[in-house]
Specification:
The structure is a homotrimer. With about 160 residues, chain A is α+β, with helices and mostly antiparallel strands. The first copy, chain A, has one domain (about 5-155): Nuclear Transport Factor 2, Chain: A. Helix content of chain A is about 40%, strand content about 40%. Chain A is built from 5 helices and 7 strands; from the N terminus they run H-H-E-E-H-H-E-E-E-E-E-H. Chain A has helices spanning about 1-35, 40, 60-70, 70-80, 145-155, and strands at about 45-50, 55-60, 80-85, 90-95, 95-110, 110-130, 130-140. In chain A, strand 1 (about 45-50) and strand 2 (about 55-60) form a beta hairpin.
């Protein structure tokens, strides 16, 4: 009896820990990318993970590492840049997770800051031996294109990004 | 002895789960409202729940559903819009919860984004058979009116929105 | 056997509770400071805690209380102000914690809002008899100065702010 109760507690606890781990990975993206830690950012993804942004499609952690090291990204850091990744809504099912949030890219401009992009973020993660890793992160700018609102809703429902 | 310890663990775990559920409901508002999912947004509230915004008072989930479907709101989605609901501070007591956070309404404007509103958010929720539902969400714009700062402080203290 | 399992569960649960408590303290800063609750803000720090901002170094909770009461800060509240403290990345080790996040200071300006500052936030907290309290919070504006990105990376790694 007690053994069953304990097993149920362990399962509930494991779910909370999984959600914490996913949230923690997501919360580290902004500080690491604005900190220019290319290895740290790349390590959030599975080796074959994908970062699918509107204009660019980064296939594999190595491409993501190069993005952080690129002159364009380093230029943002020198200019002053905050990638603010909003509070996540997370759905864990077994060894897979879907999360959704907004992100704001805030950059310095003549002594003030401007919001350069407001973006819908859809994340798919999986449990690996090295912890939860991003399989696919799909970002679509919120500029009226219909796929961005659709991406947000699919994320809350725990559905994959694509149709 | 062990039974007592296990019961104590179960109670602590249940509190963490309640806080998680409340945070998850709050984190789904922004994606659902920017996603135009009127039914999803309305389902965050109890059927008789209230969304009390500065200019408008939405009494009942059906009014909230209509707000999402309104030409005004649909226009924001087409223009490009992010309702960023900040990290919540949550107080759960039994079957009731109070939460507080900031929200930013970020809208597209001539290729960049502007922060149209920065708002104090006070949430009251209750546990129902369908999970935690919003009873009253009170939003007051942070423009110097004294009620907005007061609302933030009452939220942190777990007090109701009104005096 | 069950006793061991239960003890393991208690330890894992205690870690989640610690992380929750740290996140909750951090999530209360913005609402309390924008709410003008000087005592509430000061109580987030240990009595000898430090708030190290770019231009000012506040040593001790009493200095922090005075900052909230200052004409400058009260002026921001009257003008309309949101200190949005982003989702935290938290590392708890025993009785010490390190957390990192972004913050945005959003102020009203001619009917709209502008982002006045985007800042790297590094928090050190410790467990006290009165709960988790801030020992040192180090804020550096993200304007291209090299210490701000470095602060973000050290925060994710759970390292102290200073070199």
């Amino acid at each position: 009896m007690s053994e069953d109760r304990l097993a149920a507690v362990e399962a509930r606890l494991a779910l909370l820990e999984d959600e914490r781990d996913v949230a923690r990975a997501m919360a580290s993206y902004g500080p690491l990318v604005d900190g220019g830690d290319a290895d740290g950012v790349a390590a959030l993804w599975a080796p074959d993970g994908v970062y699918d942004i509107d204009e660019i499609f980064l296939a594999g952690a190595e491409r993501i590492r190069e993005m952080v090291r690129s002159p364009a990204h380093q230029g943002w850091i020198r200019q002053g840049c905050a990638h603010v990744v909003g509070p996540p809504h997370i759905t864990v099912e077994g060894d897979a997770a879907v999360a959704v949030c907004h992100s704001l890219m805030v950059v310095r401009d003549e002594g003030r800051y401007v919001v350069r992009r407001a973006t819908a973020n859809h994340w798919r993660l999986r449990r690996t031996e090295a912890g939860w890793k991003v399989v696919t992160r799909t970002n679509r700018i919120l500029d009226g294109r219909p796929e961005s609102p659709a991406l947000l809703v699919r994320g809350v429902r725990g559905e994959p990004a694509g149709p």
